[in-house]
Design goal:
four-stranded mixed sheet, oxidoreductase, 2 domains, Rossmann fold, 313 residues, KPA_reductase, alpha/beta
Length: 313
Amino acid sequence: MRFLVMGAGALGCAFGGMLADGGYEVVLIGRERYMRPIKERGLKITGIWGKRIIRDVVTASKPEQEHRPDVVLLTTKSFDTERAVMDLKPVISRDTIVISLQNGIGNEEIIARHLGEGRTMGGMVITGFEMRAPGEVEVTVSADTTKIGELDGSITERLEEIVAIFNDAGIPAEAVNNINMHIWAKSLYNAALNPLSAIFRVNYGRLLDSNAFAIIREIIKEAFEVAAAEGIKLFWDDPERYLDHLKNSLIPPTARHRSSMLRDIERGKKTEIDFLNGVFVRLGRKHGIPTPVNETIVRSIRFLEGLLQSQMP
C-alpha cells in the first residue's frame, strides 16, 4: 500500500517516517525548507515511539503524477484543507482514500464534498509532536491511540487493513465505528487547552489551576449546548462528566505539552482557531445560543495573531 502525506509538518513527518521505517512506500509532501534536510540527511524521529533515523525518504514540495498513492494522510492545517484537496485531485485515482488526521471540525465534510464520502475517512490523533529542527521530530506525549473510521460508521476491510499497517509500523491505532464522536471529543480537548496554552504561554498541566480551569469549564459548557442543538452525540451526558475526564484522564499524560497554537503564535503564523472554538461560535449563532466565552477566546487569539505578525521582521 502506497502512502502520501499531504502537509508533512511534525505530525505528518512522524506518521510518514514510521510507515517508511516499517517498509511501506511513503511520499512526504511539505515545504521545501523542511523537505530538503530530510532528503539530504534522512528523517530523525525520537520520543515515546522510539528513536530511529529513516534514510532515503521520498519527499516533494507538491504532489506529482508519479506518486499515485493508495492512501493520502491529510495533515495540513484545517484552513488549508480545501486547497490541499484541489492539489491532490489530479494525482489520485478513483480508489484513493483520503484520511484527515487534522485538528478541528469540518475537514471530512470538505474532503467528501470534493471527492465523495466513499473516498474519505476521518481520524483522531491525540498525540503530541514537535519539530525540533528541520528533519527532526519528537513524539512527546499521548493520551490515546489514533482512531480511524469510515464516515458511515462501518468497519470495512480497507479500514482494518490501514489500521493494521499503522500498528505494524509502531503507530498505536484503532478502527472505530463512531469517528465523528471521536473527532468531537478531540475538538473539545483542543478547544479547552490549545488556545489557553497560547494565550497564557503555558503547558497543559498549568491549566489545571483553578482560575484557568474555570475558563475551561465555560468553554465546555457552551460547546455541549451547541452540540445538543446540532444533534451531535457525545461520549459524555453532561459537561461536568467530560470535565472530570479532562482533568483526571487527558491532561495528566499530556501535562508538559505546549500547544501547536502557541507555537504558531510564537512564529507569527495563522492558527486553526476558526476550526476549534470558532466552530462553537458559528453553530451557536446558527441555533441562537450565546457563546460569549468561546467568542472571547477566538477574538483573543486573532488579536495575538495580528500583534505578533506585525512584529515579525
